[in-house]
TrEMBL record:
Pfam families for this protein: ABC_tran (PF00005)
Localization terms from the record: Membrane
UniProt membrane topology term: Multi-pass membrane protein
Molecular function in Gene Ontology: ATP binding; ATP hydrolysis activity; ATPase-coupled transmembrane transporter activity
InterPro entries assigned to the protein according to its UniProt record, in alphabetical order: ABC_transporter-like_ATP-bd, ABC_transporter-like_CS, ABCG_transporters, P-loop_NTPase
Keyword field: Membrane, Transmembrane, Transmembrane helix, Transport
GO cellular component, one term: membrane
Protein name, as recorded: ABC transporter domain-containing protein
Record flagged with keyword Transit peptide: no
Ranges for domain ABC transporter: 54-205
UniProt cross-references to PANTHER family, sorted A to Z: ABC TRANSPORTER G FAMILY MEMBER 10 (PTHR48041:SF53), ABC TRANSPORTER G FAMILY MEMBER 28 (PTHR48041)
């Protein structure tokens, strides 16, 4: 399947996006109390040192390329993707920056031209594959049901889901689709608006 490089705001014109981080660090308190501390309550007693999930990360994803983030469990891969996707806003990043085409990321704008598939497949079990994709298409695409239906059929063909179009998701049921098919549906939900950038956490799980 060819990776889409069109922005929905570009009138169909190809527009490349280069995504990068510079000296990116993100820390999380190791103690619950640290979130509710008040400096006037007295000193630093009982406070825990912050734990760095990411520290000094520099990376670059160039347009037209597939970039993989590799590392052991707990290395911070999901946290990095959450930051790149804007799920963790720039104001919560400890230091460093995320750049899109050399400029600080505008999360609101970037979300319109990107898609983010999280590690967990958040799908409605009683909807069919086609209904799931159609639901996303009607919410994300301009135009009416006819245009959305055309995009869904195209996407199911690209993802090899045509044979299960009428099957319900039903996770854990013998009557549902397989884990791999469920993963492809999740990817399809975020590909339906033809994003210029797609971020996928654990793309081969299932």
């Amino acid at each position: 399947m060819e990776l889409p490089v069109k922005s929905p705001d570009s009138g169909g014109r190809k527009y490349p996006y280069r995504l990068e981080t510079r000296d990116l660090s993100y820390k999380l308190s190791t103690k619950f109390e640290d979130y509710f501390r008040c400096d006037f309550c007295g000193g630093n007693e009982g406070r825990a040192a912050a734990k760095f999930i990411l520290k000094g990360v520099n990376c670059e994803a160039r347009p037209g390329q597939v970039t993989a983030i590799a590392g052991p469990s707990g290395a911070g891969k999901t946290t990095l993707l959450d930051i790149l996707a804007g799920k963790i806003p720039p104001c919560e990043v400890s230091s460093g920056e995320v750049l899109v085409n050399g400029k600080p990321i505008n999360v609101k704008v970037f979300r319109r031209v990107s898609g983010y598939v999280t590690q967990d497949d958040a799908l409605f079990p009683l909807l069919t594959v086609e209904e799931t994709l159609m639901y996303s298409a009607l919410l994300r695409l301009p135009g009416g049901r006819k245009e959305a239906g055309s995009r869904v059929k195209e996407l199911m063909k690209e993802l090899g889901l045509e044979h299960v179009a009428g099957s319900r998701i039903r996770e854990g049921s013998n009557n549902g689709i397989s884990g791999g098919e469920r993963r492809r549906v999740s990817i399809g939900v975020d590909l339906v608006h033809d994003p210029a950038v797609i971020l996928i956490d654990e793309p081969t799980s299932g």
